[in-house]
Amino acid sequence: MLPLKNRLPRQEFRVRGYRTVTTPFFSLKTKENEAGVNRFAVVVGKSVDKRASQRNFWERQAKTQFLRAPNFNRDFILTIFPRIASLSRQQFGEEMKKVLEKFIH
Fold first, then answer.
1. 1 within domain boundaries
2. Does the residue 33 lie in any domain?
3. Number of domains in the chain
4. Per the CB 3.0–4.6 Å rule, which of 21, 54, 73, 96 could disulfide with 65?
5. What is the extent of the structural domain holding 28?
6. Which H helix or E strand runs over 63?
7. CA 100 from chain center: how many Å?
8. Strand-pair partners of 73
9. DSSP per-residue string spanning 14-61
10. Quick one: pLDDT at residue 45?
């Protein structure tokens, strides 16, 4: 579970101004925030897998990758697509690192 300071409030989902990076496996929306820390939200719908255990697995993997990322003072919304099932845990980590590196520069 993410610490409370790193959770993105629900009302921030509908706010405009997010920049989107899309891969075949997920979509990552991001924008700067005033909180001073990264805040995250992960969306894994039933289209990814009917089993809650699998959806929770991918949510935990995403949150782990977010917590390893340096502080960018940004809000992140990660939406996972059904093609994620073709990736292994390690491949998912590498894919997340590639996308998060775009925000370092």
1. no
2. yes
3. 1
4. 96
5. 18-101
6. helix 52-68
7. 10
8. none
9. G-S--EEEE-SSEEEEEEE-SSSS-EEEEEE-TTT-S-HHHHHHHHHH
10. 95
Question: Would you say residue 6 lies in a domain?
Answer: no
Tell whether the model's pLDDT for residue 105 goes beyond 70.
no
Write the single-letter amino acid at 86.
S
The verdict on residue 43 lying in a domain is yes
The angle subtended at Cα 89 by Cα 62 and Cα 101, nearest 5°, is: 55
Model confidence, pTM: 0.90
Q: Does residue 8 come out as left (phi exceeding 0), alpha (psi in the -120 to 50 range) or beta?
A: beta
- Residue 29's nearest CA partner among 104, 105, 99 is 99
pLDDT digits (tens, 9 = 90+) for 27-86: 999 999 988 899 999 999 999 999 999 999 999 999 999 988 888 889 999 999 999 999
pLDDT at 104 over 70: no
